[in-house]
Structures are given as structure tokens and as C-alpha cells.
Amino acid sequence: MLHFAPESTWSIIALGICFLLVCVFEFANGFHDTANAVATVIYTNSLKPKVAVVWSGLMNLLGVLLGGIAVAYTLVELLPPDVLSPPNGNPAVPMLVALFGTALAWNLLTWWFGIPNSSSHCVIGSLVGIAIGDSFLHARDLGHSVDWNQIWKVLTTLAVSPPLGFIGAGILFLIIRKFVHLPALYQRPEPHHKPNPVVRALLVTTCTLVSFSHGNNDGQKSIGLIMLTIIGLMPATFALNPQVPVQYDIIRQDVQAARPLVAEFDRYSFKSDALASIDRLEKGAEIHASPAETRGDIYQVLSGLRSVASNPAASNEQKKEAGSLAKKLRPTVEYAPFWVRLLSALCLGVGTMIGYRRIVQTLGEGIGKAHLTPAQGAASEVVGAGLIMTAGYTGLPVSTTHIITSGVAGTMVASGSGINMHMLTKIALAWLFTLPVTITVSAILFYILA
């Protein structure tokens, strides 16, 4: 599969299949993650389901459009440079099939059982598995050929955010209960009865915040996946940013400045590849290389600069210089067309409209021993939106599902109603098994296909 000629019939067919896979995965992502944004507002009858999911979809779209792409390429950079930009521009079909096939299968399995699993964990586990599979494919040392610093940064964020959601939502609920004495906030929602207008306005507002923040963070992840597809399979068209003229003279200057840093402080086995890429870029990529090869060389240099920035032996000035050079090089290869943002939001929104019911019921009735009250839903959503949006603007991927779910659990503990340990165990098991399962499956699948 590595030898499909770019823009050949087989490449176009592969593009169609992978494009379908990424759209279906984002559709399934809507089942899981976006459903968390509408769970409270639907469960409390504050909005009708159709109105809620359409409104949530619009706010997701706004979040995607107003957000950046830092999260998207934080995930993309989990992949080794040679997988991210295959040699000679060959389509990255094994990587794309392993990524989407693994993540989609696990997402659908957990959704079927109504478990609020994290699509982010599915994607990240699959990406890590591909990096490991690539190491076996080329007989490389795992300790040096996988950018573990980048991986641990992402995994640490995923691990820390749910406890923050649990604690923050619990504290906010206690503050609301102490200072806001509105009985409707603490009563179980009655079926087919609209809540108090003040409560309704509050929950619509918190739904809006979570939806916007979800688009800002999770929407970026889908942008990264779509860009992986179109760049990996159509490198001649999408390898370099068409909206930013490639300034080869400036690129040559930047890579010349990067050479001594990479030569001294790059700790990974890609070091020789990065130095070879610097050589090619210095000689004139505009004359001797295709856009895909130029993109591959720039990503090799970026990989080397990331290694410099994480090396304890480098001084603060050298790390700062490496970061500055990487910032200058990224716009040439890290971008997202407007239509990609629209496609991301559309897939998330349609998935939410069709598959939200299972997750709404789990959040409303399954996490605590008592049913969710408006105050608990509002507290978990306000804290969740804050954490998700902060992570989105700082380029760190987090799990909407686990933050909101943890927040609901935190409010249940704070209210004294207790937690449904059976459901909590199911969620915890999904959390524990998602990364090992997706890493293993995607590594094996990538190795076999490649």
C-alpha cells in the first residue's frame, strides 16, 4: 500500500475511502463528545432535542471557525516525520486506514453500550500506535524513534483534566447552593415540563459555552485528521500552504540557523534525517524537490527542533531559539482551509443530531444515584467549558467526555447524592482500556498494511 502512485486511480480510490472514514469517525465523535454539550439542556427540557442539537452544532461551528489549529497539529506531530510525509510523496494509506479504522471501531463499540468514551483518547492512542508500528517497521529503537516528550505532554493533559473537572464542578456546585436559593435549581426535572425561565436561560447559556469550547478543541482534532487525509493522499496539491507564498530564501536562513542546534541537541534517531533535510533545503527546495518532499523536509527539521526544545542539556536561550525557528517554519506546512473547518463542524453536528440519546441518558441518570439537577448540570458545564476552552487556545487536546462526566460526578459527590458505582466502573474501564487497545490495534494494523 505504500507504493500507490500519487494521483493514480488507486490513490483516488484510497482518498475516497479514507475521506469517508474520517467523516464517519467525526460523525461518531458527535455521538460521544458533542452529546455531552446538549445532555443537560435536553434532559431538563430546557430545549427540544432538535433545537438543542442544531444550536449546539452552530456553536460548534463558531468554535471551530474562531479557534486556531494548534490542537490539530499537536496531534499531527505525534506521528514520526517519515509517516507524516511519506518519502517521494507516496500516499499515506496504511497510516490513515490504521488511524481511522481503529478509532472508529472503538468509538462505535463504546457508544453502543452507552459508555461516555473519549474520541480524543481513541485518536491519540491510534496515533501513538502508528508511531510504534513505524518503529518496528524500520527496526528502530522505541526509546529514540518515537517523540515520547510530545506524547507524554498530550497524555499528561488528558490525565490531569478530568480530576480538575471533578474538583472544580463540585466546588462550584457548593458555591451555587450556598448563595443561590432558587428551589427549581435543585429539583429533579419533570418529564414534558419546561423548567423555570431563569433555570432555562442558565442551562441554554452553559450548553452554548460547552458547545463553543468543544468546537474550539475537539473541532480542531477533526481538522487535523482531515488535513492528514488530504495531505497524505494528494501531496502535490495540499502539501504546502497555498494561502502563504513559500519564501524559500527565508526557509534557507531558518534551517541554517537550526543546523547547529539540531546537530548538538537532537536526541532522536531522526537526527540524521533532519540534518539531511537541512542540506536539501539549503540547496534550494524550489528547484530540486516536489511540494511533498519540501513539506517532508520541513517536518524533519521541526521534529529536530522539538527535540532540542525538550533536551535538558540545551540552555534556555537555545530552547527559546529552537521554538522561535519552529514558529517561523510552521505556517508553510500547518494550515487548514475554510472548507475543512466547515466539514469538521458539519460532521460533528450531524452525528450529534442522530446519536445523542444514549449519552444524554447516561449523563442524566446513570452517573449519580439520583437524577441530575439543573444546578449540577450548570456547574459541570461551566467548569468543563472553561477547561476545554483554555486547553484549546493553548494547543493542548483534552477530552470533552471525561471532563463533563467527571464534573457531573463531582457535583453528585458535593450534593451528597452519591455516585452510581456500576456506571462509574464502566466509564473507568473504558478510560483505562481505550489507550492500550487503540495503541495495540493501530500498531499491528499499520505494520501489516505497510
Automatic annotation (TrEMBL):
> Example GO biological process term?
phosphate ion transmembrane transport
Keyword Manganese found? no
Catalytic reactions on record: phosphate(in) + H(+)(in) = phosphate(out) + H(+)(out)
Q: Which family does it belong to?
A: Belongs to the inorganic phosphate transporter (PiT) (TC 2.A.20) family. Pit subfamily.
What is this protein's name?
Phosphate transporter
The membrane-topology field of this record reads: Multi-pass membrane protein
Domain of life from the UniProt record: Bacteria
- Per the record's keyword annotation, is Membrane included, yes or no? yes
Q: Where are the transmembrane segments?
A: 12-31, 52-75, 95-115, 122-139, 151-176, 197-216, 222-240, 338-356, 428-449
GO cellular component, alphabetical, reads: plasma membrane
Location in or out of the cell = Cell membrane; Membrane
Q: Which UniProt keywords apply?
A: Cell membrane, Membrane, Phosphate transport, Symport, Transmembrane, Transmembrane helix, Transport
The record, for Pfam families, names:
PHO4
Gene Ontology molecular function terms on file: phosphate transmembrane transporter activity; symporter activity
Looking up InterPro entries in the UniProt record yields: Phos_transporter
